[in-house]
């Protein structure tokens, strides 16, 4: 009887250990949303991707909703591990996908939601100080013409989910 109890207890320990492992495996959860201080710009699910050790750039992705009554413009921002931050668009040029910086920023009209995602508009983190690792939470900001600066965190997802190696600058 004593032995059986010990065995049962051991199993319970194993089960709770397994439960903890599951928690450790998904530390990031859902990326935190952010809202501008004037309440007009809402940012949903900011994320980035893990990079190879030698990589100098990473992409940033999120959704921007303008709940205000005037157009606004994403003009820049920052990311803790990047020396430089740009807002990029993708375009087809002679059958080759290219990305370029939006010098005048990205306009979001009232009521509009723009999704920045791989293959479309995106943030470009340039001159990375170190590789981005899966599970990292990276401090950053977005700067809007009207709404001002929004502080947020980019959750780093796994490397290579959607490769960007074919893109050219
Ligand atoms: Cu880019």
Verbal overview:
By secondary structure, the chain is mostly beta strands. It has one domain: Sandwich (Immunoglobulin-like), CATH 2.60.40.1890. 14% of the residues lie in helices and 47% in strands. The protein contains one helix and eleven strands; from the N terminus they run αβββββββββββ. The chain has one helix at residues 2-25; strands at 34-35, 41-49, 57-66, 72-79, 82-93, 96-101, 106-108, 113-116, 122-128, 137-144, 148-157. Strands 1, 2, 3, 4, 5, 6, 7, 8, 9, 10 and 11 form an eleven-stranded mixed β-sheet that branches. It binds copper (II) ion (CU). Copper (II) ion (CU) is lined by residues 88, 99, 122, 124.
Short note summarizing the structure:
With 169 residues, the protein is mainly beta. The protein has one helix spanning 2-25; strands at 34-35, 41-49, 57-66, 72-79, 82-93, 96-101, 106-108, 113-116, 122-128, 137-144, 148-157. It has a single domain (34-157), classed as PCu(A)C copper chaperone (Immunoglobulin-like).
- Beta-strand percent range: over 45%
Distance between the termini: 71 Å
Number of E-type strands: 11
The rounded Rg comes to: 21 Å
Instruction: Specify the biggest β-sheet.
Output: 11 strands, mixed
Tell me which ligands are bound.
copper (II) ion
**Parts with pLDDT < 50 across at least 5 consecutive residues:** 6-29, 163-169
Question: Topology as H/E string?
Answer: HEEEEEEEEEEE
CATH superfamily: PCu(A)C copper chaperone
Which structural class matches the secondary elements? mainly beta
Shape: globular
- Tell me the number of structural domains: 1
Query: Class in CATH?
Result: Mainly Beta
Do you know the CATH topology? Answer: Immunoglobulin-like
**Average pLDDT:** 83
Q: What is the number of helical segments per DSSP (H or I, 4+ residues)?
A: 1
- Work out the helicity level: 10-25%
